[in-house]
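Below: protein 1.
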Amino acid sequence: MTTLSYVNIFARQLEPLAAFYSGLLGLEEIVDSRSSIFRGFRCGDASLGISASDAYELLGLRQPTGEGERNIVTFDVESPTEVERLVEAAKGLGAEVVKEPFETYYGWYQAVLRDPEGNPFRLNHPGRRV
């Protein structure tokens, strides 16, 4: 069985972006994985990694050029009220709301945001709004 271990977000500024996600979502850092170019956080059954741009070379990847989203990270929370609370908290931490909380056609309640570096992410409650 294949499982997801990490989702990584590349950061222009490692510390501020790591602080944004860990502070907003209350994530516990995986201190053993800390380096000058990486911060890791426990996030349910998988982990969230924040990688500095130096990690591109380490991994043998090219830095992207041009604009446009290629990925979006979705964080599940326990209730629609928590989606709304976290949207307000994220705005206070410098996030931009792309789409205010809404019920999707498949019955989930979510909001779409951009972190302070412009990376898109969703706050999601996987169930119908009560």
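Below: protein 2.
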Amino acid sequence: MKLALITDLHANREAVQSVLDHAKAQGAQRYAFLGDYVGYGADPAWVVDTVIAHVKEGAIAVGGNHDAGTTRGPSPNMRVDARRVIEWTQQQLQEHQLAFLRELPLSKVDDDMLFVHANAFAPAEWEYIQGRIEAVRSLHATPCHYTFCGHMHEPKLFHLSGTGKAGEFVPTPAVPIPVPPHRQWLVIPGSAGQPRDGNPAACYAMFDRPAQTLTFHRVPYDHEAAAQKIRQAGLPSVLADRLAHGE
């Protein structure tokens, strides 16, 4: 089974469609969406409906902090621009779309795989996995061999051996990485809708379960079209400008 791991879609239709097309061409047989379907971008309804359609066909989906903010109100520590977009997004979604976001679980276990937006140790508190310390804490919080996280917008990979030795990688796109199950692995695919590592190309990863490999991908997309939609919607222009620079 080839499992496409897609996270932090952030209402970016152009990026999400490009990622889905690429994943299909790479032979994806199942999809996992790791949260933050809305926020920042100008196409929240299309992105939510796209995820809903995939879930009906067997995809996994968990909720992120922007999804929770849209249905329950933004958290006090959210930046002003993010809060403004959430308020705008609430007016763009229909009740069935809001209900879908409202009912998303914070985490989901499937066999020896854990899917969660932020981390395994406190999913509802939205703490970031910024480095090895947080990654190890997350891996200690689950018996699963594979943990797939979003929230961080840069692709990263961490592992923990049975003896407690931890390691990390900054992955090279399109290069398969062996991920045997005698170690625990924490995978951050990077953001599909708003990469922040200086590369504007959309991020996702493919987990090939039979081959025990993980491949990170970067997919160019029409970020100018996505940016223009943000400006036309009257959303903060900084959110449009950053797409061209992967910030």
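The longest strand covers residues 202-208.
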